[in-house]
Write a structure and sequence with these properties.
The chain is of the alpha+beta class and 143 residues long. It is 17% helix and 41% strand. Strand 1 (10-14) and strand 2 form a beta hairpin. The longest helix has 14 residues, at 41-54. The protein is globular, with a radius of gyration of 15 Å.
């Protein structure tokens, strides 16, 4: 279960919870996530499963765990999405409303019937390619 394939070529970015690398050979991104947004690893993996159901076109593949400087990271891979146009917040809102979500605050949505909260859906976490939205970085909680 330990991840030891450190053959990614380009460091892309880093957020509060993860480091992101580009694997040019596979046209995928590799993400090291420390789970900081979750109470425990169970919540993190629930988030991954729900993301994969709701946003299958950007599904995560779990590759294993990695330890860096005494910090445990889950390693996931995801198809790389090349944006072809700027993401409009209104387009994200419209799609989320069509899926039964309502705006909780700013870039966070809630689905009362399903008991889901999806946070951080802003222009850098939802990309547009050929007029389709791709959710590449979601933070999902069960209510």
């Amino acid at each position: 279960m330990w991840y030891d394939n450190l053959q990614f070529s380009i460091y892309l970015s880093e957020g509060a919870e993860q480091k992101v690398f580009f694997n040019a050979q596979q046209n995928k991104v590799t993400k090291f996530n420390d789970g900081i947004f979750y109470v425990n690893w169970t919540q993190y993996f629930e988030s991954i499963i729900i993301h994969n159901i709701l946003f299958s076109e950007t599904a995560y593949d779990f590759s294993g765990f990695l330890m860096i400087n005494k910090t445990l990271y889950a390693v996931v891979e995801q198809n790389y999405i090349e944006p072809t146009e700027k993401t409009e917040i209104k387009a994200i809102q419209d799609l989320m409303y069509s899926k039964g979500f309502s705006l909780k605050r700013r870039n966070d949505y809630v689905h009362h019937e399903l008991g889901l909260i999806i946070e951080d859906l802003h222009e850098e976490n939802v990309l547009v390619n050929n007029e389709l939205l791709y959710f590449i970085d979601t933070v999902i909680y069960l209510k």
